[in-house]
Write a structure and sequence with these properties.
365 residues; alpha+beta; three-stranded antiparallel β-sheet; 16 helices; disordered N terminus
Amino acid sequence: MTDQSAPALKEIFNLERLQHIATEMTAVYPAFDAKGFLKHAKAGLAELSVMQRMARVSESLHAVMPLDYANTLTRLYALAPRLNSAFVSLFLPHYVASYGRDDFKRSMAALKYFTTFGSAEFAIRHFLLHDFKRTLAVMQEWSLDANEHVRRLASEGSRPRLPWSFRLAQVQADPQLCASILDNLKADSSLYVRKSVANHLNDITKDDPDWVLSLIEGWSLDNTHTAWIARHALRSLIKQGNTRALTIMGAGAKAEVKIHHLQVTPAVINLGERISVSFTLESTAATAQKLVVDYAIDYVKSAGHSAAKVFKLKTFSLDAGEHHSIRREQHIRELTTRKHYPGTHRVHVMVNGERLGSAAFELRG
């Protein structure tokens, strides 16, 4: 796995945190070899990424634990509620994925328990690779669980393109495999779960957009939770101006609007400064209309060409003859996922998938 996370993130697993894990493990298992664990865990720590450090903790526990898998899990069950970070608890399901694949039933129970302290979304994928049909059947049961963390695991763990993990080629090729999970969760009361379902569906739009569109077209969007999932699941398609996606959102028709006073200020900036995009939309329609408003920035690339990145603005209804002003600030700064280059960057306002106006700003070298 390639980890491009910020350098500070890996410090979640710093020396102080390793000592915390050793101390708490000793509290639940007095015979624990804390000294051996720390020696193993600290070796070459500075060069390791956050996910590599997480794996190292799991490996270090295994290296010094003389117990069999079942008895080790008993101690890890006791350790889980004592850890002082949800992210740090990821090493617990990692241990299950690394050393428990031959004890399926016990491992499924462990992942269900550990996910309530952080998440087992990465670990469950190894079981899907090892025994897809059997693991998916358990996840389908989890999608009906009373605990929101367990329900989310059913959706998040089966995402075809989960960040920081490998892709699930079977789900990419046939998203119908997870349809029952998504159907069970399409009106979930938990925002935590709904975000996962929306992201799962948004993943699928990268490989099979028609499948997602057909699925959501069959949903009743009268339920506010379902409507929320649909809106966020279709975000990438809406940014692309996909007519079916816009129609589902009630904005499939050509927008009857005029754009006024489009400005990007300041006209010239340095890296690290902010721009402000502002404009007014005027309805020219005889009745109210649903509008999906986005904007795109043509970022200058290293070779001198540009590539557009679309950002969400807002979705709203505009009455006949009504004016609506919009303003949005954006920080132009370096990100792990985007490097900026000097030059002219054009900004385009998009309404119902159509570009209605453009302006520009200059990024100094």
